[in-house]
Structure formats: structure tokens, C-alpha cells
């Protein structure tokens, strides 16, 4: 149904039986945002009628064991014949950063475009900075917060996008750096005299050095490095490193990480290179 999901995930249209399953994950997936009032607000936004009457324009994504991984609830506007509306979207925090949300949006765009719709609208709460960043990256235009949009005290930010010119966001890409690397720990915190290092991390216990591995370094001490090819995310975007480490952990691949201001550097044992790359590609990452 959705071709560019990671191979381990499957999508389908939801049914009324899925309604309690979705309600059950809302508070956890939203991290308890706004406390009890927020939990009640989210539950009230998803009555059963959406699963009864808008299933054919909505999507539900599941893990191989049937557990819920993501959902999108959307519909065709009945008053604006060229418009569709995305009402509610959620993604398991363990999958954040893997492009699942963007994939669901693009699937919805394709579905409603085939129905002759040219515009998609949606809203979020002003304090949901993750949602606001996500929609901006997809190319949505955003309003300023509109007071009392959904009733007294319920301000919203309204988004809109034209399906004739929405950008296509590629899968998150990692570049496999040339050569192999070794890890060293030095008690002396001063920078090495040579320039054959890739990264330095200074800490109270000394200096960690990621450097080009010499030929004399044993195979079991050699690492290969992956680095973000297009580091265009903000510092306030959660789950990016977790999205990389989760498939590697499931494949039992050890990792060593270091982060720059712009992106993450992920090292895996050279002996596990093929296993690591296969795990990342299966999770939806592009390796170049």
C-alpha cells in the first residue's frame, strides 16, 4: 500500500476496531504533553467516527508483530472540493527520524491528488515545536498562532500546502567515510601533534581520539564511519540518533558515536559492516 516504508513495517487502512488501539498510545507517544488536560484533549480529537467514516483516506502502520507503529487520519473536505485535511498523525517515538511521518504524508498527498484535490490543510498546537518543524520541512506554509481557533483557550497554528509544488523530501542519507578508523583514549587531554584524527572528545578522564587506522591495527579494533549526508535538521528535533541506533541494536551491531553541531557520526566494527548497512537500509536509510 505504501512502497517506501521500511521493509519491517506494513500499512493498511484503519477500521473501527483500531480505534481503542490508537487511543491507547496517544499519551505515551506525545510524552504526556500538557498533562491530564493534554491527554483528554488528544483523546477527544479522535472519536470513533473517524475510523468508521474516513478509513479509506487514512493509514495505519504496524510492526511485524501487529503492534502499532504509526497512523494518519485524514479526509476529503466536503465543502472545499479542491482540498483535503490531515486531522491527526502519530509515530512511535522509537521510529522518529526515519521518515515515517513524511512517508505517510506523501502517501496521503498521492491518494487525495488522485481524487482531484490540490491543497492539504492541517493544524497543531503552538507549543508543539516538533510538529511545527516537521511541517516546515515538508514545505507547509504556517500561520501565526490563532487564539481560540478550536474554542476558548485552544490556540492553533494552521498549515497549508499546494500539491502542485510540494517538495519531495528524500530518505535520510548517510555517507560511508573512506577507510577504517581506530579508537584511542589518552590521559593527556591535549590535542595530538599529528593531524590523522577524525574527531576528538575531551572529557574529565582524558581525550578520546577517533583516528585513521594504521595497517597494524588488528581487524577486531577497526571501525567504519557513517556521517549524515544532508544534516539539515535542527537541534530541537528529537529521536534522530535513536532512529539510527535502534535498527543497529536489533541487529546486535555494536556502535560508537560522536556528534557535531550539525550531525551524528556513527562508527560500527569493520567486521560488522555488511550487517550494519543492511540493517540501516532495511530501516529506510540511504547509504552512499
From TrEMBL:
GO molecular function terms attached to this record: acyltransferase activity
InterPro entries assigned to the protein according to its UniProt record, in alphabetical order: ACT-like_dom_sf (IPR045865), Acyl_CoA_acyltransferase (IPR016181), CASTOR_ACT_dom (IPR027795), GNAT_dom (IPR000182)
UniProt KW keywords: Acyltransferase, Transferase
Domain N-acetyltransferase: 9-166
Catalytic EC class: transferase
Record Pfam families: Acetyltransf_1, ACT_7
Its EC number(s): 2.3.1.-
Protein name according to UniProt: GNAT family N-acetyltransferase
Species of the source: Streptomyces salinarius
